[in-house]
Amino acid sequence: MGLLEYLKKVLGDEEGEKAYDKISKDKDNVLLVDSKKGSKYIEKSELDTANNSIKEYKKQLKDRDKQLNDLKDKAKDSEELSQEIEILKADNEKTTKDYEAKLNQINFDTKFEKAITGYKAKNPKALRALLDMDKVKLVDDTFIGLDEQIKTLKESDVYLFETETPGGTGNIGGDSSSVIDTDEGKLSLGARLAKERTEATKVTEAQNKFFS
């Protein structure tokens, strides 16, 4: 569902078109009306524009509620009309809450995508699927309950993350052949030890022959 259709659905055809026209004329709000954009990432300026829009809508709805209350006072003798007014007020409130919830979700997802890249996951979407998102809360641009889960997954599912290569610590004496962290290094060391044992045996045999 595009933004125009969404606005028509929650605000009605006339109000929805007015809202859409207002947003589409705002150059800072291009991403919100361009449904062809592939990325889910939304700049802070665009979120601010959207938040300002919802504030404006809330103000308009409050004004409309006031008008409905005034109308209700005038129509208090008509039960049917009073009920209709109450329904309109409830619809106004629901529209505001739904739109706010959508903006809050966009804000959460945008900041979450940015935060998750810092953990060097091979597949951020797969990583998110393994997280208990009910325990992740966004508080003042900081995600609470995320770091603990990531640390646990780094221990239990190492394959999900890029391998971090530790820096070298240097070798005593500067002899690179003493490195035994790799399989090749272990084999080289084993071969040297075998050679040393063979030479030591030969020396021992030679000494025995000499002193016999």
Key phrases:
Phage scaffold protein; 212 residues; mainly alpha; SCAF; coiled coil; 3 domains; 66% helix; elongated
Detailed description of the structure:
It is a single chain. This protein has 212 residues and is mostly helical. The protein folds into 3 domains: 1-34; 42-117; 119-162, no CATH class. Helices cover 66% and strands 3% of the residues. The protein has 8 helices and 2 strands; from the N terminus they run ααααααββαα. The protein has helices spanning 3-11, 13-24, 30-33, 44-74, 79-116, 124-130, 147-156, 183-211; strands at residues 137-139, 142-144. It has a two-stranded antiparallel sheet with strand order 1-2. Helix 1 crosses helix 2 (13-24) and helix 4 (44-74) packs antiparallel against helix 5 (79-116). The longest helix is centred in the middle third of the chain and has 38 residues, at 79-116. It starts with a helix and ends with a helix. Residues 28-41 and 168-187 have low confidence and may be disordered.
